UniProtKB/TrEMBL annotation:
GO terms for molecular function: 4 iron, 4 sulfur cluster binding; cobalamin binding; epoxyqueuosine reductase activity; metal ion binding. Signal peptide: none annotated. This is Epoxyqueuosine reductase. SUPFAM superfamilies: alpha-helical ferredoxin. Belongs to the QueG family. Catalyzes the conversion of epoxyqueuosine (oQ) to queuosine (Q), which is a hypermodified base found in the wobble positions of tRNA(Asp), tRNA(Asn), tRNA(His) and tRNA(Tyr). GO terms for biological process: tRNA queuosine(34) biosynthetic process.
Length: 309
């Protein structure tokens, strides 16, 4: 193998073999269009208490500052859309957190992919990223043609909607680069109209500090009373803007066994969640992303919702 096209084809085939839904490749370079957007978002305090978003501004916009000698950003999508969802009479958990914490699942796949690249192509160096470093995942995925950024600020694909994780391999290998796709939101405002807290302040702009996902996961203090009766029964995360998006009618259930939920997660009623103990929390969410809120955080969210009923 000795050409950029062959290397790129090998990486995409290998990604598919590992269970990734899509793979796109873009040149590792400064994200010019994103710089003013990120600056404005931060200056208007739309990140709320997520102080970490203010760190590593340069690295967020330039992967060559993050990974020495990097030439390419390989963006990957992994489906998490479940075949079954929670009972209707329940406090809700975002679908991405149903099974094993995606960080572990995807990191393992990315390590395998990098190892395969090294075995096949040779001396290639790079780093794997899953939503835990200063990398603008959605911007890179859009740049590499995997979808467009929708009005709710999530990545959207005509073929698969938006229920998938985004991850990257940033490597020091020059490859064939994909091109962005066009925006297909049109005049639709379903996500803006449906957002329970009006967090989508205008098309393509989200006030993170008003988002239910932020309030139930990132916010460490008490949820402000102003959000009373606006939480739509979400106790961890929120899927409203995705659930109402017409493109998600094309979502198909994932085939990753590690993303299957603990059976109790799907059947618990509101009253059972209200009686949640530390032991049951530890059992149901043993390897789950829900552990991020800790038992006390989830109880805080449940108590807030219970006070609304």
């Amino acid at each position: 193998m000795n050409t950029k096209a062959q290397y790129s084809a090998f990486i995409k085939n290998e990604a598919k073999r590992l269970g990734f839904m899509s793979c796109g490749i873009s040149k590792a370079e400064f994200l010019e269009a994103e710089a003013p957007r990120l600056e404005e978002w931060l200056s208007k305090n739309r990140h709320g208490e997520m102080q970490y978003m203010e760190n590593y501004f340069d690295k967020r916009l330039d992967p060559t500052k993050l990974v020495e000698g990097s030439k390419s950003v390989v963006s990957l999508l992994l489906n998490y859309y479940p075949s079954e969802t929670q009972t209707k009479e329940s406090y809700k958990i975002s679908k991405y957190a149903y099974g094993t914490d995606y960080h572990f699942v995807i990191k393992d796949k990315l390590k395998t992919l990098l190892h395969s690249i090294q075995e096949e192509i040779g001396d290639v160096h790079g780093r794997a990223f899953v939503d835990s470093a200063p990398v603008l995942d959605k911007a890179w995925a859009a740049k590499s043609g995997l979808g467009w950024i929708g009005k709710h600020s999530n990545l959207l694909s005509k073929q698969a909607g938006s229920f998938y994780f985004i991850a990257e391999l940033i490597i020091d290998l020059e490859l064939d680069y994909d091109t962005p796709v066009t925006d297909h939101c049109g005049t639709c405002t379903a996500c803006i109209d449906a957002c329970p807290t009006q967090a989508i302040i205008e098309p393509y702009k989200v006030d993170g500090s008003k988002c239910i996902s932020y309030l139930t996961i990132e916010l460490k203090n008490e949820i402000p009373n102003g959000f009373s009766n606006q939480m739509d029964d979400w106790m961890f995360g929120c899927d409203v803007c995705q659930d109402v998006c017409p493109w998600n009618r094309f979502s198909k259930p994932h085939n990753e066994p590690l993303f299957n939920p603990h059976p109790e997660l799907l059947t618990k009623s509101k009253s059972e969640w209200q009686e949640l103990t530390k032991e049951v929390f530890a059992e149901i969410f043993k390897k789950s992303a829900v552990k991020r809120t800790k038992f006390t955080g989830l109880k805080r969210n449940i108590n807030f919702l219970n006070s609304e009923d």
